Automatic annotation (TrEMBL):
Cofactor(s) needed by this chain: heme
Chain sites annotated for binding heme: 533
Keyword line: Heme, Iron, Metal-binding, Monooxygenase, Oxidoreductase
Domain of life from the UniProt record: Eukaryota
Protein family (similarity comment): Belongs to the cytochrome P450 family.
GO MF terms held by the record: heme binding; iron ion binding; monooxygenase activity; oxidoreductase activity, acting on paired donors, with incorporation or reduction of molecular oxygen
Name listed for the protein in its UniProt record: Cytochrome P450
Organism in which the protein naturally occurs: Allomyces macrogynus (strain ATCC 38327) (Allomyces javanicus var. macrogynus)
Record carries keyword Iron: yes
InterPro entries assigned to the protein according to its UniProt record, in alphabetical order: Cyt_P450, Cyt_P450_CS, Cyt_P450_E_grp-I, Cyt_P450_sf
Amino acid sequence: MAVAERKYLTVDPSISIACRLSSRPLKNATAIRARSLSPRSPARSRARLLDLLVYTADQTSPSSNQQEPSTTMSIIADTLRDATAALVGDNVGTQILAAAAATVVIAAAARRVFPSSTADLKLPPSPPAWPLVGHLPLLASTKEPDKLIQKLAHEYGPVFSLKLGNVDVIVISNQELAQETLVKRGKIYAGRWVGKVLAIGTENGQDLVMAPYGERWSHMRKIAHRILTPLKITQLDARLDTESLRFVRHLVASAGEPVEVKRHLMLYTVNIMLAKCLGITYDSPDDPALRSLCNDMLKIFELGGVGGLEDYYDSQVLNWVVMRHKRKEIDAVIARVHQGMVLGRILELKARLDDELAHGEDPAANRDLCYAEELFLSMEKDELTVNDIKQLLIDFLFAGMDTGAATLLWLHTYLINHPEHQTRLQAEVDTIVRTHGRLPSLDDFEDLPYTRAVIKEVARLSPVTPLGVPRQTTDTDTLAGYHIPAKAQVIYNFVGIHDSVYDRDFRPDRWIESNNLVLMDGIFTFGAGRRMCPGVHLAAREMVLLVARVVACVQLGNAKGEGVNIDMTPAFGLTVLPKESVLVKSTVRSAQVRELVEKADAALAGRAASGQATAK
Ligand code: HEM
């Protein structure tokens, strides 16, 4: 953009000097600048100083006429000298303003005047930016950043950049570039961009999800992999069995009534994660402890899930002002969840283990151990501290609860709006029910290709974290002929990436035709490369079992009216969900399935009574 087109008046509408300055050759700037500052009117001087700073920053920007570094730096020095002289005799506040402004300008100018060696290449294209704040106002203007990113990707192409305060943001929106960066050049894009709120919650990336790419991350990741391998997670099958039965039983029992299915799906995924991580389960979605946990997850997202102003400037003052308010709320969540619920529980489990070991007992002989117990038993060998175990389990809980429930909610929505797919799914599971005389189970995983295809199609079309979990570059790079700076925030626009390869029709058969039923292959909903979601196999199993059982037992309908479609417009949040609350009305498919549910329930109660219930 030409300098003259810049809207300096947004800084102070009453002052037009910078506007005039901007359309003149640089050599005239000093004289005009000197006239614009006056010790007689500190308020006007302050405003003019701001305009000058904006002007100076712009003159030093790469998009301006390229000045000699020495010329640009001398303009900056002159500006600051004049500003200080003009403000002598003014109050202390103004001097602080001048000093702060000087720091901003010098930092911005130094970055631009003495760029790194690869910076002769341009950053990827970007929309017009405001001086100093960059594209922050653009992002602040929407509550749906995913849609804005989509729109910008259409305008600026598969790789574009944004400037949020001091932070360079790179957005990638096609499969080729996603593959190139996440897999082929995986190391450069393997950092994690962490905002201040999440940094506090994770003790500066002491966990796995937010850990900077490096040794600690690698250590935590190995442990996560070990306990989440496809083979190891079959140990959770009994828990998945119990929880999916709880869900189906509820649908059968409340047939004909509207059910707000989201809460029950949340109970499903929360119980699976909590049982396996900490040996706890809840009986009802209305349990106050469960509601408080869900609210706390949402609170952390609201406070800093997509980054706040404090994340985009290296300013202690700004940080102090903004974080002062947020800090109290974060500390309250940490006290309730991290220290209270998780640490409290794992210390309790550790005490029990220590006691059993002291008495020469084998804890694994009496019960299925939860992850906390398994990790305590191997903590010396794995070089883990109690805090490491706490952080890892919090990651599993936070990463694995809402994402699975949200994907399953979309799935219910698709099935209600497209009943023809319910019919095909029913045909698939009915064969299993008829052959074995029981409800589908995880033993049937391989015999459920259409169920798996439907789940994968939903995950492709409605990724619940459409902008992924932001990465950070660990080094500079050149991508598609553009300069990618080190420490840039990198966002993967999953919807754009998927749209670059597939059409937007809901057609699960595409995965059967291409013989590609593995959930994460060919889609980016779970990320890709070194930091790809390690929970994907568990997510696949929990979704397949639930869907197979639901369609075996009930016909799903919209409680708001037969044949009425649910509004599929997505609403942005911790996870992206349908805007409309989904109220399901189910119809039990036959007396036989009702009996099978009762039989499975009785078997479960029998197992529990004989002390064989797992992982509780
Ligand atoms: C439908 C369910 C899920 C979805 C859509 C999902 C999605 C994601 C995405 C997009 C990422 C970022 C990947 C990247 O940067 O490339 C991620 C990371 C992660 N997920 Fe999941 N996830 C799901 C379930 C789970 C479950 C069940 C667990 C735990 C058992 C889990 C644990 C994690 C962890 C620990 C990471 C961080 C990995 C790292 O930074 O190295 N997720 N997930």
